[in-house]
Amino acid sequence: MLSSTHIHISVEDVNEFNPEWKDQTYVTEVPEGRLEKRILQLDAADADGSEKFSKICRYHLLTPDVPFEIRADGMTQTT
Ligand SMILES: [Ca+2]
């Protein structure tokens, strides 16, 4: 059986430029009922800093009650 869910993730801005996602949409499939530690690597950058310091510090999932987590480095995993 296949099912799908959409997860909305946003980044909050600090300083002059808005952070931008590397890709507009990230899509993948995961097997149901199994812990997956590496699903998708999300990546956003902010032009307020140099390339070295433009990486986003934290990501947060906004969709409640989903069996996913996002780590500080942008990697998503199942819970
Ligand atoms: Ca900024």
Structure, described:
The protein is mainly beta and 79 residues long. It has one domain (1-79). It contains no helices and six strands. It has a two-stranded antiparallel ribbon with strand order 1-4. A hairpin with a 5-residue loop joins strand 5 (68-70) and strand 6. Bound molecules: calcium ion. Residues 13-15, 17, 19, 46, 48 line the site of calcium ion. Calcium ion binds at residues 13-15, 17, 19, 46, 48.
Provide a compact summary of the structure.
Helices cover 0% and strands 18% of the residues. With 79 residues, it is mainly β.
Q: Oligomerization state of this entry?
A: single chain
**Strand percentage:** 15-25%
Gyration radius (Cα, Å) is: 14 Å
> Which structural category fits the helices and strands?
mainly beta
Question: Got a strand count?
Answer: 6
Pick out its properties.
single chain, 79 residues, mainly beta, two-stranded antiparallel ribbon, 6 strands, elongated, binds calcium ion
